[in-house]
Amino acid sequence: MSGAVLEPPAAARGLPQPPIGGLRAHADLIFAALGLLAMLVAVLTLAALVLDLAVRGLPRLDLQFLTSFPSRRPSQAGILSAWVGTTLVMLVTAAITIPLGIGAAIYLEEYAPRNRLTDLIEINVANLAGVPSIIYGLLALGLFVYALGLGRSILTAGLTLALLVLPIIIVATREALRAVPPTVREAAYALGATRWRMIADHLLPYSAGGIATGVIIALSRAIGETAPLITIGALTFIAFLPTPPIRPDFPFVSFQWLSDPFTVLPIQMFNWVSRPGTDFLPNAAAAGLVLIVMTIAMNLAAIVIRIRVRRRVKW
């Protein structure tokens, strides 16, 4: 503006200026305090929920509860079929999703050409990690149950959860591979190693800790899923176990259990919580504690793997 008069800065007019360092220090302290407050709220909320679950469920948690089938009587009901079903479904899920997820990540990171098709695949993989789990249940119902005729079985449940957590493993594995310094690849190539030998002997050992962490995070999500398993027809009341995988006669191994009906711990908990009255609430709390212990056990396995890998691999 032609008529506007520009005032000189505060320093030129002799006015005091706030110290820049002091403002930055105060901003850092405020941000750190807010971050600590957010962490404390989350941790205390989680601790309160786990404590409430323990107070309700520990009196009900005993050997009889772990070795009994569900019952109409709360004092006699157990989770034998539920925790066995959870274990078998997670075995199928891990056997399918771990090799597929790691293999897909290795291909996308080390072999795939950089073009529009690869970019489209990467975008879709990242987006699939955020798709609601019920969508996977509807997909599995139409594909595995009706189209392929696998029925409402343990195999169908394992395939459904494998599709659900596959993007998580792919993304985590790619991030772990990217974290390996380029000098590791260059040194292996300089010594005459092929691409596959470089990946198998150097890249995978160095990134095994990050890959294991991603796998456990994915399986921890899968073990607590309920919506996709209800969609494909998991039973809410089952009083028998699947066919044993070991047989007394030749060939001594049976895969009949893959086609057997099943239930899992989250569905058993949902069944008890949804009943009228509060008689079954201690049973649901005890089942929740068992589910937490199984999840913690998987995380401890990842920590052990990570520690052993770090001791063996030297940068």
Automatic annotation (TrEMBL):
Pfam families in alphabetical order: BPD_transp_1 (PF00528)
Origin superkingdom: Bacteria
Entry's transmembrane regions: 29-58, 79-108, 128-147, 154-172, 203-220, 227-246, 284-305
UniProt KW keywords: Cell membrane, Membrane, Transmembrane, Transmembrane helix, Transport
Chain ranges of the ABC transmembrane type-1 domain: 83-302
Bilayer disposition of the protein: Multi-pass membrane protein
Annotated compartments: Cell inner membrane; Cell membrane
PROSITE patterns for the chain: ABC_TM1 (PS50928)
Family of the protein in this entry: Belongs to the binding-protein-dependent transport system permease family. CysTW subfamily.
Protein name in UniProt: Phosphate transport system permease protein PstA
Taxonomic source organism: Caldovatus aquaticus
